[in-house]
Specification:
It is a single chain. The protein is an alpha/beta fold. 37% of the residues lie in helices and 12% in strands. It has helices at residues 8-16, 22-40, 48-63, 105-112, 160-167, 184-190, 224-234, 252-255, 283-297, 317-332, 350-361, 364-377, 382-403, 429-433, 440-445, 479-493; strands at 43-46, 74-78, 116-121, 173-177, 193-196, 217-221, 264-268, 305-309, 409-413, 449-456, 467-474. The relative contact order is 0.15. The structure holds glutamine. Glutamine binds at residues 127-130, 158, 178-182, 210, 325, 436. Residues 127-130, 158, 178-182, 210, 325, 436 line the site of glutamine.
Length: 507
């Protein structure tokens, strides 16, 4: 048995049946990290001593019959979650040496469930990006390769380190955050499952803020059930986050086995989204993927029913997001001024100290967002940009609300293309932002959504041999239906391809 190939569900069972210890499971993953992280750069910080101590603690709890739901399960934590006593960088130079004195609620809950933390996963700086190219700690390499081509590809972003670590079998699962697609798009690029819950389902306390009205934590793993198990431990009301929802946490894992009978599945008319040149490079494969989903889910006997829906304002989601997200980011990032924590540069006076600290500490993409955000919030332009974007955000939500009057879930592609090569789109931010056309509408509306890997592009196509995910979107707080439909898609799709670079694979 290769321990690094197990699902979380299998590992939980194996630990309880004493087939292997939590220490052995953690050691297998630490060894995989040692071998592959130099190539992948999926982790910014690895914490082997801490991980082994946590594994020993899990073994004791398992022995004493006091084990939590995730006892002994080795995870990667996106380096945007504050971890008490362990450096937390947000992949930024400005927080290069920041050691938080407190723990985020999501990671505290995972620890309380007995999870083992292997280390902190790489990301785009402050979670701004779709490629992981903006990290101050260097890019992450996607463990997948194009057929017949050794070019290093991006893992997607911003949770690219988390996605690469899970795909390459360096961790059984990971945490991610998703402001405009940062869990789902890297999941699609790396052939794994990623789930963004309803806004408010997981506490934002202790997660370094990007755009507070959009940010949401969620799980990344290799199966739908594993994501459901992780979310069960991560979710729940937190008085420390005023936008956290005071609702019971359902049994998400049980929902995975519920099937789709009686459900109405919404297929969106008018795809690909018009007026987005170059966005749907893999349009043929995506069209086939949606046809397959229809066949898999909407069978005559015990299947779901197909409903055609429209989301007329889908094409306005991207420009709306790229006003609202930078606006909130410019406000959130004002706190990094060199005074209270993080990096500080010398200056002749206070203003020069601020200027130098921020000039040295932030990378180009973060600076671009701060500039855009400050502009759209400024006195003369607030009404023209920010206020208007807020109104369109509401209309996009209304589109979804109307569509959900006739269906239970909506399927969409996760991303318009497969993984691209490193450095390919980094020079043109507009091209980079197009990655997010199918994911940002969901954040603007605050809905739950999952990306499930369903296919690999044909070998002969440019960029062939790479995974593609399908997105399932639900009504607010109806994650259970999202998991049920995603599990049905996963079963029918039978996605079994594996990346070239992974633990245990000979290279
Ligand atoms: N790619 C999007 C952006 O750059 C989304 C990032 C995210 O979800 N954190 O803003």
């Amino acid at each position: 048995m290769t321990l690094t190939d197990l699902t979380i569900a299998q590992a939980c069972a194996g630990l309880r049946e004493k087939k292997f210890s939590a220490r052995a499971l953690t050691e297998a993953h630490l060894a995989a990290i040692e071998t592959l992280n130099p190539q992948l750069n999926a982790f910014i910080t690895v914490t082997p001593d801490l991980a082994l101590a946590q594994a020993d603690e899990a073994d004791r709890a398992l022995r004493d019959g006091k084990a939590g739901a995730l006892a002994g399960i080795p995870l990667a934590i996106k380096d945007l979650f504050c971890t008490a006593g362990v450096r937390t960088t947000a992949a930024s130079r400005i927080l290069e040496n920041f050691v938080p004195p407190y723990e985020s609620t999501v990671t505290a809950k995972l620890r309380a469930a007995g999870a083992v933390f292997l280390g902190k996963a790489n990301l785009d700086e402050f979670a701004m990006g779709s490629s992981n190219m903006t990290s101050a700690f260097g890019p992450v390499t996607n463990p997948w390769r194009r057929a017949g081509d050794e070019a290093a590809l991006v893992p997607g972003g911003s949770s690219g380190g988390s996605a690469a670590a899970v795909a390459a079998r360096l961790a059984l699962g990971a945490t991610g955050t998703d402001t405009g697609g940062s869990i789902r798009q890297p999941a699609s690029f790396c052939g794994i499952v990623g789930m963004k819950p309803t806004y408010g389902r997981c506490s934002r306390y202790g997660i370094i803020a990007f755009a507070s009205s959009l940010d949401q934590a969620g799980p990344m793993a290799r199966t739908v059930e594993d994501c459901a198990i992780l979310l069960g431990a991560m979710a729940g009301f937190d008085p420390k986050d005023s936008t956290s929802a005071d609702r019971p946490v359902p049994n998400f894992a049980a929902a995975c086995g519920e099937g789709v009978e009686g459900l109405k599945i919404g297929f969106v008319s008018g795809l690909p989204i018009p007026n987005m040149p170059g966005a749907d490079a893999d349009a043929d494969v995506i069209a086939r993927m949606l046809d397959d989903a229809d066949k898999w889910l909407c069978r005559d006997d015990d299947g779901a029913t197909r409903v055609d829906v429209t989301l007329p304002r889908l094409q306005h989601a991207l420009p709306t997001y790229y006003i609202i997200a930078p606006a909130e980011a410019s406000s959130n990032l004002a706190r990094y001024d060199g005074v209270r924590f993080g990096r500080r540069a010398d200056g002749a006076d206070l203003i020069e100290m601020y200027e130098r600290t921020r000039a040295e500490g932030f990378g180009d993409e973060v600076k671009r967002r701060i500039l855009i955000g400050t502009y759209v919030l400024s006195a003369g332009y607030y009404d023209a940009y920010y206020l208007r974007a807020q109104k369109i955000r509401r209309l996009i939500y209304e589109d979804f609300r109307k569509a959900f009057e006739t269906c239970d879930v909506i399927v969409l592609p996760t991303a318009p293309t497969v993984a691209f090569a490193q450095n390919e789109k980094i020079e043109d931010p507009r091209l980079m932002y197009l990655n997010d056309i199918y994911t940002v509408p969901v954040n603007l509306a605050g809905l739950p959504a999952i990306s499930v890997p369903v296919t690999v592009t044909p070998d002969h196509a440019a960029g062939g041999g790479l995974p593609l995910g399908l997105q399932v979107i639900g009504r607010p707080f109806e994650e259970e239906k999202v998991f049920a439909v995603a599990a049905a898609i996963e079963k029918a799709a039978g996605f079994s391809a594996r990346p070239a670079l992974r633990a245990g694979a000979a290279r």
